[in-house]
Design a protein that fits this description.
The structure is a homohexamer of 249-residue chains. With 249 residues, chain A is an alpha/beta fold. The first copy, chain A, folds into two domains: 132 residues, Rossmann fold, CATH 3.40.50; 105 residues, Rossmann fold (3-Layer(aba) Sandwich). Helices cover 43% and strands 16% of the residues of chain A. The first copy, chain A, has nine helices and eight strands. In chain A, the strands form two sheets. A four-stranded parallel sheet of chain A has the order 2-1-3-4, sandwiched between helices. The first copy, chain A, has a four-stranded parallel sheet with strand order 6-5-7-8, with helices on both faces. In chain A, helix 4 crosses helix 8. Chain A is globular. The mean pLDDT of chain A is 95.
Amino acid sequence: MRRRVLYIEPAVSQHVDSIKGYLSQFKGPETDLEVTCLTEGPRHLEYYSYGSLVVPKILKIIKEAEKENFDAAIIGCFYDPGLRESREIVEKLVVTAPAEASMHIAATLGQRFSIIMGRSKSIPLMRENVIKYGFQDHLASLLPIGMEVLDLQIDPEETKRRIVQAAEKAIEQDGAKVIILGCTHQFGFYKDLQDTLGVPVIDVALAAFHYAEFLVDLRNKHGWYFDKKTEYQSPPQEEIEAWNLSDLF
Amino acid sequence: MRRRVLYIEPAVSQHVDSIKGYLSQFKGPETDLEVTCLTEGPRHLEYYSYGSLVVPKILKIIKEAEKENFDAAIIGCFYDPGLRESREIVEKLVVTAPAEASMHIAATLGQRFSIIMGRSKSIPLMRENVIKYGFQDHLASLLPIGMEVLDLQIDPEETKRRIVQAAEKAIEQDGAKVIILGCTHQFGFYKDLQDTLGVPVIDVALAAFHYAEFLVDLRNKHGWYFDKKTEYQSPPQEEIEAWNLSDLF
Amino acid sequence: MRRRVLYIEPAVSQHVDSIKGYLSQFKGPETDLEVTCLTEGPRHLEYYSYGSLVVPKILKIIKEAEKENFDAAIIGCFYDPGLRESREIVEKLVVTAPAEASMHIAATLGQRFSIIMGRSKSIPLMRENVIKYGFQDHLASLLPIGMEVLDLQIDPEETKRRIVQAAEKAIEQDGAKVIILGCTHQFGFYKDLQDTLGVPVIDVALAAFHYAEFLVDLRNKHGWYFDKKTEYQSPPQEEIEAWNLSDLF
Amino acid sequence: MRRRVLYIEPAVSQHVDSIKGYLSQFKGPETDLEVTCLTEGPRHLEYYSYGSLVVPKILKIIKEAEKENFDAAIIGCFYDPGLRESREIVEKLVVTAPAEASMHIAATLGQRFSIIMGRSKSIPLMRENVIKYGFQDHLASLLPIGMEVLDLQIDPEETKRRIVQAAEKAIEQDGAKVIILGCTHQFGFYKDLQDTLGVPVIDVALAAFHYAEFLVDLRNKHGWYFDKKTEYQSPPQEEIEAWNLSDLF
Amino acid sequence: MRRRVLYIEPAVSQHVDSIKGYLSQFKGPETDLEVTCLTEGPRHLEYYSYGSLVVPKILKIIKEAEKENFDAAIIGCFYDPGLRESREIVEKLVVTAPAEASMHIAATLGQRFSIIMGRSKSIPLMRENVIKYGFQDHLASLLPIGMEVLDLQIDPEETKRRIVQAAEKAIEQDGAKVIILGCTHQFGFYKDLQDTLGVPVIDVALAAFHYAEFLVDLRNKHGWYFDKKTEYQSPPQEEIEAWNLSDLF
Amino acid sequence: MRRRVLYIEPAVSQHVDSIKGYLSQFKGPETDLEVTCLTEGPRHLEYYSYGSLVVPKILKIIKEAEKENFDAAIIGCFYDPGLRESREIVEKLVVTAPAEASMHIAATLGQRFSIIMGRSKSIPLMRENVIKYGFQDHLASLLPIGMEVLDLQIDPEETKRRIVQAAEKAIEQDGAKVIILGCTHQFGFYKDLQDTLGVPVIDVALAAFHYAEFLVDLRNKHGWYFDKKTEYQSPPQEEIEAWNLSDLF
């Protein structure tokens, strides 16, 4: 039974092809992968307001993905924008995202993890998500490396150098047993870092990709799916029509 | 020094006039109040996805309100949709919302509060907001009364009867010292309920309104305003222009 | 409707006039302010035992204030001594205090705050109050500057220099978004510090003063007042008389 | 090495002799016990304000006890009034109290405990103490039996009947493994209740008495005593004299 | 790349064949499954002491499994006995267990879950594991159905009837969005229950099985494996030999 | 009434005599002390797997100790291995251990404590125990000094020098008011350290020893003993016989 997975860059992105190539190396034999991005809007989501702009656009893509019989969609940003909204409007599509996926994995591999990110601006929202997902006791620290998201791939060696510096602080002083690279734009760095640091280093795009495959299998085999009875109950079709929301739903 | 306050019904609403009349009874002598609502979109926000649809529309109104020299804007829904996004895009406008305001007040009046809402669908998001605002230890219980938001004002006596029943459970069994009416559509009921129950009953639209006046005074007198240095730092104008986000900002 | 507010220095104080002048600059047009202090007892409350000595004296002043038809009383010390005891013995007087007021304000302006105080002796009680009021998740750090309370106003420039040093540590390393000056004797410093630091800096005497005005308005307009049903239920008059406690009550 | 222990009824009490007889049955061979009470003031401490009135009187007794070379003093009320203030003004006297002592014991005997008390008025302060002492995760429930403190010994069978009813609820529904009788006026009931219920039932006066003996031994043998370096640092003698606080200290 | 998985019944068990048949229906195309059990010792682990007896036996099996080039081992009991000990003594074998696996899955599918178990004796250890894994905020309730572990499969209809009763209480009163069947001996029931209840019902043996497959893929593809640097560092070979522990390791 | 106490070194140990001599200096006049250790197995428990190997051996000693009418047994390792298992298999023997005992004492003497240990390998299990016992809010920090357990007594001056260095960091930066020497192999150091540091320094072997005496007295005088009704309910004799577990029990 094949799994059709859609990875959504929830911003205008130049990385669609590279992400596709990157993830495809690691996909299971039964997985088909497509990658898409937004055609207009912000190019990163480092501001709350940018994040809110893209959620309606993400929902359109999600709705379309369900119609096209995708099995899973990944919202490819570590803030997990629109995750619960997406789960609400679908009936069988699995939706997941990098922060959720990587924290579940990291908490399994060691007692505490640190998240390394570009700028300190991100800390309040990341901390909030850590708490929202219930991983507060697993959090060792949140460490910024003083770089803009869009600059992370410009000089990979410099980026890696700064991540190593932050990660060593996390491991030695904060008690981190696992490092999470808290931005999908840090993709591709984890292997080298893992060799250097000697602890698991989680690439969050990969984490979300494999978590999506895992959740699809659970759904297919056991019917384990998001609680549609109350928490993710879909809005009623009559309201959507009566209020002309159908453009979206 | 006058305070110009804009109350936003963040949905298509038929209550603009009644809300305006209702709040105006209680405004301070230096306060000017206007009430507005969305012109298209959902009529309530009982679904995550509805909530995300209205945030970009709220941001437009917020941006406009700042240009028109309002001092404060209230996002009039107990889910506080778009609160932090709004604070990010403004430079001097005070923005607040009912859940934040009423929890601060309730936690001052007694050790623990219960929140009474229409449907159990709302519980996960409300619990999340309680935790996000840090009031977890003050929460006695979250109690639904089995009514749709849009039905709360249809038969006020029935609504009040159900609220009393839930509130008595909250006070006697859950240890609530204060009752929060967890939906702006429960406006107008608190006085009667307070007389019946003998404990403070918070009308969340009024709570937000007075909290807005309070925060404006703090800003005007002392420059106490949201942290614009990192947490609510505004997105850079160059990005907004380069990426054609100016429709919104 | 005028608001009559009594600010109590809950110790023998030489700052009654300067506090009155200081707060009066910022009072609302409908507010009348009086300031008083103890006539005997300790001059600061840096010891638990000093704090307990003054509570009965505070209660006398509170009782008197209610008889004289004040609307609000502020217990002007960041330890909030006698706050709940005072709320218990009054029937309509609003009572508030600096720690409560400033933490509500700070938690509204940013995700986390740091409290800067004179000596490390104060930390256990301050931490306890942070937890008691439910702001544990909002606490970034508690930072002493190595000065006695009574010395804070002697060389204001030195005091400010040390506060800036501590606050910069709080902002850069501990993730503070808001600074609370955790002693009423730091009054008058916040504006300069705010300009220097670029984040909100809360003067706790001012915070309590405005919170008192706010709570009076809520009481006057909506009857929102401390839970007198159980938590702040007053002791019975018969007991007070039978046991000769009337000197106090 | 003998241990001289002073049990203080921190209110005007008619139970001095019966408490002395009661505790004496259980004292160690090296323990001398005296019991005292206040000579004026309230007869119970069910109100915050009553509690604050007696603390200065407790401190006088504590200071005197240290001068008379007592080894330990117990502040015999489950609210533990004046506990930390007392520890601050002494140099070698051990001071403990029923809530602290009984929670340490209960948390050792089973995962979670319930506290049974007279009236629901007590719940907020008891919950606060549970949190202050760090036993929040061990708390199964706080259950009132609808009786005034001074009535608990009037009809012991009725009191025990109500306690059994509450305790059975605690054990069966709330998951309590240990029952704490949350008022020193419930003294003498625990044995019968323990036989009936089949789980440990803690008499809090006895708990405090034995904890005092235990802490004296730790002090005598190892010098383990309250942190006098910062947390319980005593106020300076010069201040006490200069400010005429010597009546107390 | 095939995955060889060993499922260990960590007790003397008559269910080896039925578990193997049951799990095999759901295994991935690349998975080979073997099931084993203990040859002597207890038949269930409802007592702490039984649990401790089997851990050394589990470690032997684990060590053997690594030598035989299994990719993963599952310790098939909801108490997850010996989980961290096992991870410590292996170098590349993935080890997981039902409680860990099912809580990660349940927390992904809905905000809060309830765990349904045989007897209330199990509650303290289950609560402790919930906290240890960091899922405290996701726990709605722990509900026993009054049955011995070895009786759960005797009259499946009666067992299911009791589970439904407990689960309905969990969903309606405790706010559970997902039900975890907190014993591997409840295997086979989840599908019917899921149909009846309308929310996800997690079979914990299946959860562990799929989590094992997932973790093997993460290890194989990315080298993401338990932190062997400090937390799960293996004991040194010299010590094992010098102290004659080699029977085990 | 005499108290017979058995101190168990839960590993192969060369310190049996020195521990006996050390503890005997401090025993009460009614206490008889014996010290034993394992005859085969590991010499320290710095690995999870070592810890699990010794628990069945500890249980045998515990069972024997109950038969020989000891009043208390102490499991002399700061990880408290087998503590709850032991409590389950006994009917009247008091069992305690160093981590439990020392944290109760430390939390009584000051608001927060730091634990100083040999290696960072120990931190995850120690943190877990702190949380399990409910002392999370009392924990200031966990600080390793970079030494193997078996080396702690080799050069006592060097060990003490490193402890002082860590403790000063704990006191000045982390806010510790009490220091716990988190390994029984640090025995004998506390007095000097206490003199140097000026805060209470807890020797955890002594803490456990006195806590055992204390718990025996509570059992003898009041019948306060571990909850045998559910949490520590003993396994049924029929099962033990039927399954040939009698070698152990």
